[in-house]
Fold each of these.
Amino acid sequence: MKPSPFTYHDPHSLDEALALLNQYGEEARIIAGGQSLVAMMNLRLAQPDHLIDINNIPVLNGIECQDRLLQIGALTSHQDILQSELVRQSCPILTNAAAHIGHYAIRQRGTIGGSLSHADPAAEWPMIAILLDGEMEIAQLSGEKRTLGARDFIQSIYTTDLAPEEILTKISFPCLEENEGWAFKPFARRRGDYFIVAVAACLTLDQSGRIKRLRLCLGGMEATAIRLDEIEQGSIAHLPDENWIREVAKAACNEGNPVDDHNADVEYRRELVEILVTDALQDAFKGTQRG
Amino acid sequence: MNQTNDKTAFLNAGKTLLRKEDRRLLTGHGRFTDDIHVVGELHACFVRSTYPHAKISALNTAEASAAPGVITIVTAEDLSEWTTTLRLAPPIEGLLPIEMTALPKDKVRFYGDLIACVIATDRYLAEDAAELVIVEYEPLEAVTGMFAAMEEDAPLVDEELGSNMISHQSFETKSIQKIMKAADRIVESTFATARQTHLPIETRGCIAEWDEGSQHLTMHIGNQAPHPFRSVLAGRLKLRESQVTIVVPDVGGGFGQKIALYREELIVAALARHLKRPVRWREDRMENMLASSHAREDFARTRAAVDSNGRIIGLMLELIEDFGAYCFYPANYLARVVAMILTGPYDIGEYAYDVKVVLTNKCGNGPMRAPMAITSWIMDGTIDNIARELELDPVQVRRLNMLADSAYPHTMATGETMEDINPGTALEKGLESIDYKNFRKRQLDDRTRGVYRGIGICSVVESTTYGSKFYKAAGIPGSGHECAWVKVDPSGEVRASAGVMSTGQGYETAFSQAVAEGLGVDPKDVAIKLGNTDVAPYGMGSRGARGATAGGGTVYLAAAAVREKALAIAAKLLGLNSADHLSIQEGRVCWFFDGKIQETELTLSDIARTAYLDPTSLPDGMEPGLEVTKAYDPPPMTYSNSCHFCEVVVEVNSGIVKIERYLVVENCGNVLSTQIVEGQQLGAISMGLSGSMFEHMIYDESGYNQTGLLSEYMMATASELPEIEIISVATPNRRTPIGLKGMAEGGVMGSIGAVSNAVSDALAPFSVVIDSHPISPLSLRQKLRKSH
Ligand SMILES: Cc1cc2nc3c(=O)[nH]c(=O)nc-3n(C[C@H](O)[C@H](O)[C@H](O)COP(=O)(O)OP(=O)(O)OC[C@H]3O[C@@H](n4cnc5c(N)ncnc54)[C@H](O)[C@@H]3O)c2cc1C
C-alpha cells in the first residue's frame, strides 16, 4: 500500500498550477485534501507521475455570499463549511450534509472541490450540488473560465466533465428561500460512512400553503444522484399533506436503476427510498412551517 | 496462598488503579515495532496470488530483480534450503496431519496466498518491484463453501490430504440414540456465524536482526506467546533455541492473530540470516485483511429432544467449521471446545456431538477472542426455539433446565467439570434488574403501536485458563502452565516477569497488583518486564483468557514466596524466632502483636540489602539474594459465568436494529484490577456485537475476497455500540491464586447470543428467527419479505 513514484509540485498561484497541468496533461493529478486520491494511489489504482498540490493557492479557499448566491472556493474543507455561520444561515442543508461526511480528521482535509471532482455516487457534495443545481466554475490555462451546472458537470460514477488541464475553482449554490423547508436523509450502516441510499429535498409553499417548488434528489440509485423532475413538476400546487407524501414516496421508489451489492439489493434500495422520502418530505414540510 | 480466597482479605487485588502503561501510550510515547529502527535495515514485500486457486506454471523475477533498490527476490525453492517444512500432526483422533512449506511450491490456495518475497532498500521500491514479478497461473476451480467442500468430487485444497475434511470428531453418551428415537418432540435449530477477521489496529510486522559474529537472531515482533514462538522459529530455521531472542515491544492488539509463526515472519527471519542484514516487514492493511488470519464461519445444527414442559432430555450437536486454506493450528482445536462445553449451565445428561472442520480456498483460520464464541448462542438459541415451538416463556424453559447453583461442581456429559459458578444467580439477578416481569406486557403494548421490541437472554459458561490436564485430555500438545519470577534488587526495587505478553490488556497494571498483593508493596513500586525471551521465563503466552489466572496468578505465587523469604530474614534481624506474626505492608515489615498491627523499623529495602550484601547475617543455610522463579499449572479449566441481556427495537420497514439496553451480570471471580476487568468486559461485548451485527468477510463464488479493505469490511465503531451496564455477582474460584478466573472472552460469547435472541424475540410476530450472521438491515428485510 505504497504509491508508485511521482514528482511533487507545489504551485503558489492558479496560473502556475494551470501551466503545470498543461505541461503534464494526463500524467498529472491535482491533489487537494488527498482523502480520496491518496487512498487510490496507495492501492495503485491511480499512478500519476506528477502530483500538483493546490493547497497553497489561497484564492481557491473561502466562503462568500453575494446576491443570494453562496460561493464556496473549491479548496474549502468540509469542516470549514460545517462550521461556517454564513453557510448555516444561507443554505443550512449544506451544513447538515457536511456533518455526514466521514469523520473529523477527514473533514479537516477533504475539500468540496475534491469531492465534486472525484464524483463518488455515494458522496454528499455531488448529491447536494445536483439537488440545488449548483454551478461549477472551472479555470483553464487560457485564462478563460467556464461555468457548468452540476448535472452537466457530474457525468457518471467517478466521471466529470473536467478536462485534465482544468481546475475546479468555485462552486455556487443559490441560497435557500426564507421558509424553504429542507431535509437530507442518508442511510449508512455506520456513522460517517458513505451512504448506501440518500434522499434530499427542498420544499417551498405559496401563500395558500400549496407547493410552489419541490426539489427532490435520490442518491445511491444510479451512477450519479438523480433529480426526480417529473415528481417535482407534478407536485406544484399540490397540498403538502400526508397523502401527497405517501404518493411521492411510492412513486420515487420506482425511480432509478440501482445495482445489487452486498450492502443492499435492488429491492432494499427501493424500500429505503420510500422510507427516506417520507421522512425527508415530512421534515421539509415542518421546515416550511417554521417562520 | 490465601486459602479462603475471601475478597476482603486482599489489600491490592481488586483495586481500581490508573493503567500504568497509559502514561506512555496516551502521550504518544509507546514503542511499537515501527518505532524501532535498525541501521542498514531492508524491507520485505510479498508477491501474492491474484487467483483463489491456481497452479503456478511459471514465475519470472528477472525484470523485477533488476529494478531499483532490489536486493533479492526469493521463491519457494530458495526458502526450502533455509527453512524446514512445518509438520502439524498431533496424535489427535480424526485429525489429518498437514505439512506446510515457507512458500507454496506449485500452487496457490487462496486469493492473497504467498508466491515470492522481494527484499529492497525501502518498502516503496519493494512494492514497485513486486509489480514486475511475472506469475503465470493455471487457474483451478475453487471451493468456497463448507458444504461444497464436503462434496464427493469437490476440488481439493490440499491434494496430500485426499479430502477437504481435515478433522472429524464425534462423541455420544450411551443412551442418546435411544432417547432421540423415542422422543415425542424434537426441536431443531441452526446457527451460522459469519467469517470474520481479528482486525488489530496494528497489523502484523517484525524486524529480524542476524548477528553473524555471535550467530544470533533477534526478532522484534508483536506477538502474544513469545517463547512458543521462539521454539517454532528456531526449529524451522534449523537454529538452536539459544540462538534466538524474541523481543516484543508495545503491541497494538492481537485478539489471537499474533500467536502462531506465520510464513511471512519465518521468511523475513530466514532472509535476515541469509543476507546477514536486518530485514523488516510491516503487513499492510489489505494484506492483513486478505491474508493474515480469519476466524469463525461455523455452522451448527442442534436437535433437542424435549418433553412437553420444555425439559431437554437429550441434545445432539452437529458443527461444521470452514477453516480456510491453511492450518497454523490443529484444525479441530477451536470447534472441539464448542462441542465440549456446549451444555454449560444446563442439566443435560444425554448428549452427542459431531464436529467437522473443512478446508476451503480462503484465508486460513485461527483462534480469535473466544474461538468457542458460538457456544452460548447455540445453547440459548436452542432454548429459545424450544420455548417458541412449545409456546412457553423462554425464561421458564431456562429455569426448568438450568442446574441449581448448589449443584456445582458439576461434570458435563463430555467429562468437563465446572465449579464455583452461579448461572442461576446471574440469571435471576439480571431478570430482576431489567424488570423482566413487566417486559412482556411492554412488548405487547408496543406491538399494537407497530413497535417491535425484543429481549434476548444468553447465559455463558466461559472456559478460561486451560490447564495442562485439559490439553492432555483433549489430545492437544502443549501445556497450560505459566512461569514467573519476582526479584527484589539490593536497592529494594521490585521487578517481576512472566511468559505471557500483553497486546494491550494492561498486564503491567494487573501484574503490579498481583506482586503488590503477594509481596506487600505498593503496586506503583513494581516494575513489570514482559516480552523479551532472554528476560522473561519460558511461559505459554497469552490466549484463552489466561492472562490473570495463569500469568497474574503465577506472578502472585512468586511474590508470595519472595515475601516468605523476606520475612524469614526479618525475623532473624528483629531477633524473633519465627516470622509467624510478621507481614509486609507497603514495603515495611509489620508485626501483629496484642491484636494490633504495628510497624517495625525494618523495610523491604533493608532486607534486600542484607540478602545481597550481608549474607552472613541471613538465617543459617539461607541462600543469598531475594528472588524466586515459580511455575504454576492451573486447574484443567477455570470456569467463569455471566448472563447477558439485550433489549432491542427492530424497525421492520428498514430492518434497522436499535439496542436500547444492554446488561450483563458477571461472575469472573476475584480480580486483580477492577478497571482492567471492566475494560475487557466492555471490549468483549463490543467485539461480539460487532461480529454478529456488522462484520463479514465476504468471498464471492469464485473465491475472490470482496471485503479486503476497511471501507468494505464493516466493523462497528463506538457510535454503533450501546451503553453497557455491568453487575457483579462474583464468587472466587476455590483453587486458583487469589480466587482468580479468566473473563476476556465470555463477553463475546454472550453478546452474540443475546443480540441474536433479542432480534428473534422482537420479530416473533413475523416468525423470523435469527439463524445467521451478520444481522444486517438487509438480511432482516430479506427475511421479513419472505414472512409476509
Ligand atoms: C475514511 C473516509 C471516509 C470518508 N467518508 C466520506 C463520506 O461519508 N462522504 C463523502 O462525501 N466523502 C467521504 N470521504 C471522502 C472525502 O470527502 C474526500 O475528501 C473527498 O472525496 C475528496 O476530496 P479531497 O479534497 O480529499 O480530494 P483529493 O483526494 O485530493 O482528490 C480527489 C480527486 O479530485 C481531483 N481534484 C481535487 N481537487 C480538484 C480541483 N479543485 N479541480 C480539479 N480536480 C480536483 C483530484 O485530482 C482527484 O482526482 C471519506 C474519505 C475517507 C478517507
Note: Chain B has a mean pLDDT of 96.
Amino acid sequence: MAITLNINGNDVSIDADPQMPLLWAIREKAGLSGTKFGCGIAQCGACTVIIDGSAVRSCNIPVASAVGRQLRTIEGVSENNDHPVQLAWQDLTVPQCGYCQSGQIMSAVALLERTPEPSDREIDQAMAGNICRCGTYPRIRAAIHRAAELAKA
Amino acid sequence: MNQMKFTRRNFLQVSATAAGAMVIGFHMPSKAMAQAEGSAGTEINAWLSIDANNIVSIATPQTEMGQGAFTSVPMMIAEELDVPWENVRHVFADANRHVNNENLYTTTSTGGSTTVSRRHPYMMQAGASARERLRQAAATRWGVPLDQVVAKQGVLSAGSNQGTYGEFAAEAAAITLEQEPAIKPYGDWWLLGTDVKRLDIPLKTNGSAVFATDVEVEGMVYAAVAACPVPEGKVVSFDFDAIKDMPGVIQAVELKQTKDTPTFTDLRSAVAVVAESWYQAKNALAAMPIVSDFGRGAAISNESQNAEALSLLAGTGVVLKDEEGNPGKGYDKGVNQDAVPGLLESATKLVVGEVYHRPFEAHATMMPPAAVADVKEDRVDVWTFTQDIGRSLNEVADQLGRDTTNVFLHQTYLGGGFGGGYNMDVHRQAAAISAAIGRPVKVIRSREEDIGGDSQRPPVWGTYKAALGDDGLPTALMTHFVGEEKMPNFARSSVANMPYIIPNRRHELSQVQSHVPIGYHRAPGANSNGFIIEQMVDELAQAGGWDPLDWRIKLTEGNEPWQRVLLAMKEKSGWTTDLGDGEGMGCAVVESHGTIAGCVATVSVSRRGQIFIDKLQYFLNSGYTINPLNAIEQAESSAIWELSHAMFGGLDLRDGRFVNTNFDSYQMLRMPDTPPVVEVQLVNSEDGWWGGLGEPAGPPTPPAIANAIFYASGTRIRTTPFTKATI
Ligand code: FES
Ligand code: FES
C-alpha cells in the first residue's frame, strides 16, 4: 500500500507492506543505502536512524510506525559532509571498514543534540547499542568530544 | 624478508586509451562508484594514469576493508612517481583485466598483513617505471640528455624547459625502457613514513561508500539463503508450496553441491528463497520446511571436542621441527628435542602446566556476506564480499561454466574482512541463483546464516612441562598443543618458533577432527597460541622467581628486534608487578606476520570478581612503517578485535551446530567495555625487513590481560571468554 515517509525533510511516497521493517523500506524502497543491515534484531546499531530526535534501530520496527514523524538518515546529516560529527570523524580518522559508521554517526548526532557536552559515561551509554568490529571505539569517543568542541565554536 | 616474484611485463603494459573504464548497463549506486571505476587520462602502465590536469589515478588490486590498502598502494606508487599527494586519486583495479592478462597485477589477494610488507617492491617499481618513462619522454621532446631531466612533484624540468607529467603522459605511455630503474632504498622517501589519512575516510562519514550490499541493478530481486545448519550436512528436500503464497515470494532455488567434500570456496549445499524484498525472502525461508541430512557433524559438540582434546593431551603428539619465522637473525633457537623427555624425568624442579584453551570464533564482519550477480547470456557482472577479486572472478566463471573474459567482478568496499573474505561462496550462490531465475539478484546472508556457516577460527588446546635450573630459568621445555585437523598450522604458529632461548625444547602436536569449515582469522594461530605460550612464560618466570618481563628480556638476549620491544615495554610503560590489592599489570609479546607486538595491560579486579581494563599499551616493531597513522589505527583495531574475543567471544557448538549466531548471544565488545586508554608506540628496527600491521597487536592482548588479572587477583584464567571465568 502507499505510504508517505518524511525522510531528511522530504516527503517520500513508497509502496510497501506496512509491516515491512523500516530499514528495508529506507534501503530498498526509498533507495537510501547509507543505513546498513547488521543483525536484524536491534543488537548492532548498523541500522540506526533518528526519528523525532531519538536514535532508533530501524531493523525491527515496522515502516508504518514512522509515518507522520521526522525521519533522518546518514544522507540527511549535512549537504557537504561537514556536520561537526562528520568533521570530527574525518579529523580523527575514525572509520575503518566504515560499515558501522552510519549508525555510529546517527547515534552520536542524536546524543549531541540532546547533550551538547557529554561525559565519557554519557558517551558510553548513548553508544552502547552500536557495535564496531573494527574496534574504532577509542576514536569514536575522542571524536564525539571533538565534535562537541566544533559545535560550540 | 620475503620478496614476491614479479614480472617486468606488468610495468610495460601500454595502452593509449583510457584505463579500465567499464561500460556496463547497470544503475550506478552513487557518484563515488562511478568515479571509482572510470579513470580518465592516459595510462602509463596498468597501475596508473595521468590526466591533462596532472591528476594521477592509481589502481589498487587489493581490497579495502578498513586496513588502508586503498591508501597504502597509492602511497607506494606515488612515492616513486613523485607527485603531490593532493593530486592522487584512488581507482579500483579491474579484476577482469587482471585475470585475463596473466595476473596483470601479480596478485589480488588481500590478507596476512602483506599488502605493504611483501608487495612494496613491485608496487614501488610500477611508480618508478612510470617516472622514468616520463623523464625519457621529456628528454626526447626537449632534445636534452636524460640525466638533465628532473622529475619532481608532478613537474618535469631541464634547464629552462618545464612541463607537467600530464603534458608528457601520452609520449611516456609509448616508451619501453631498456632497463627498469631500481626502487628507492629506505630513507630516501618523502611520502612513505609520514602520517597520511586514508583516502576512503570521507566516503565513510556520509554513507556514500558502496558495499556489495548497496549495489542496485535494474530488475534486481533479493535472495535469502540457508545451508544445512550442521556444517557439511546437505539439504535433502524443501517444500516450496508451503510458502509460495507468502507476500513477495518468487521462487526457491536449490544450490547443489558438486563436490562431496567441498573445499573452502566451493558451493555448499543450500537452498535460497527469492522474493521482491530481502525481508520477505528471509521470512519465507524461515517458514519453509526443509529436510536435511546432518552428516557426521551431528555427533560433535564443544564437549565432545574438549574430551577428545584432553585425551590426546594425555598421550604423545607428533614432534614438530623447529621453524623459521622470526625476523631476529643469527640467534640459537636450541631445540635438542630427543633429550627433553629424559631431562624432564630427572628434573629437580619441574613445572607442570594445566590445560589452556581457546574456543571457536567467527569473523562476524559488520557487513554480513553479500553479493549481487547479473548473469546474462553474453556477460556476467558480480559485486561481492571478497578478499581476492581475481580468485572470486575465477570462481564465478567456474560456477557458471563461463569463460573468464566475459565475467566482470567489480570491487566494492568490504564491511570488514579479517580473513573471512577468503573462504567465501556467496558470489557462487548469487551467480547460481541469477542463472537459475534469469534475473539479477542480491544475496544477503542473515547474521545467523553468516555466523553459523562461517569458516571459523578453530579451537586450540595446549599445555606444557618444564624443568628449571638453579638460576630459575628453564633448562628443558615440552609443549603439547591440540589443533584442528584441517589447519594444523594454526596450532603451530608462535609455538615452535618462539623466540625464547631454552637449551632443550620439544613441541608436540595432536589434532581433533571436526566438520566445521576453518578459515583464516586475523593473525591465525598466533591469536590463540600466544594466549597459551605467553601465560606459560609468566608461570615459568613466577616458578623460577623471575620478574616476567625480565625473564623475557633475559631469554631473548642478542635478538635485537625482540629486545627493542621488550626494553620499550620495561622503560616506557611504568612496568611493575606490585600495584597493590586488586590491581595488576601484565605483559605479553607475540610475533605474527613479521611484526613483534608487545602489550602491557593494567587492570583492576573488584572484590566481586569484576574485571576492569584500565589501560592497554602497545609497542610494535615492524621493521619499517610506511604510514604511521594507519599503523596505529590498525594496531588499535586488532587489539580491540582480540580483546572482544577474550572478554566476550566463544562459539557454542551443540549437536554439530553453532547455537549463538547473532549478537544477542555471540557477544561483542561495546563502547562501555572499551578501555579508557589504548596507546600504541612504534619502536621500529628499520633494518631491512618489513612486517605486516593489520593483525599483530591482537595476539598479545588476551595473555597480557590474563597475566595482569593474575597479579591483581591471584587467579589464572586459562580459557576465554573471561566473562565466563570465576575469579
Ligand atoms: S541491523 Fe538493526 S540493530 Fe543490527
Ligand atoms: S568501522 Fe568497521 S565495523 Fe566499525
Note: Chain B touches chain A through 65 residues (CB under 8 Å).
